[in-house]
Design a protein that fits this description.
Layout (H helix, E strand, L loop, with lengths): L3 E6 L5 E4 L30 E5 L3 E5 L29
Antiparallel strand pairs: 1-2, 3-4
Length: about 90
C-alpha cells in the first residue's frame, strides 16, 4: 500500500501520511460469476433479469431478490455475460 507524507507531525513527532481511498465494495447483484454461462448470452436475455422501479429503474437478478437494496450495490448490467444460473427468457 502506498502512502504519501503530507509534511506535518503529530503531537508525538510522527509524520502524518495520507492513506489511499478505500476500494468500492464488491458488487453482489449476480447469482453467479458473470461469464460462466452459455457463450453469447447476456443477463438481459435471461429469465431472471428484472427491471425494478424505486426512485429510478435498477436492473437486478431475480435469483438475488432477498439481497436487493434500493441502490446500485446489487445492480447488474443488461450486457453482462450470462452466469451459470442463466435460463432462457420466456
Amino acid at each position: 500500500m502506498r502512502t504519501e507524507t503530507i509534511g506535518e507531525a503529530t503531537l508525538f513527532g510522527e509524520e502524518l501520511t495520507e492513506q489511499p481511498a478505500p476500494k468500492s465494495p464488491k458488487k453482489t447483484g449476480h447469482a453467479w460469476t458473470p461469464g460462466t454461462g452459455p457463450k453469447g448470452e447476456t443477463c438481459q436475455s435471461c429469465a431472471h433479469y428484472v427491471r425494478r422501479q424505486w426512485d429510478k429503474v435498477y436492473l437486478k437478478c431475480g435469483l438475488m431478490r432477498e439481497h436487493w437494496t434500493q441502490g446500485p450495490g446489487t445492480d447488474i448490467r443488461a450486457r453482462d455475460a450470462a452466469c451459470k444460473k442463466w435460463e432462457p427468457a420466456p
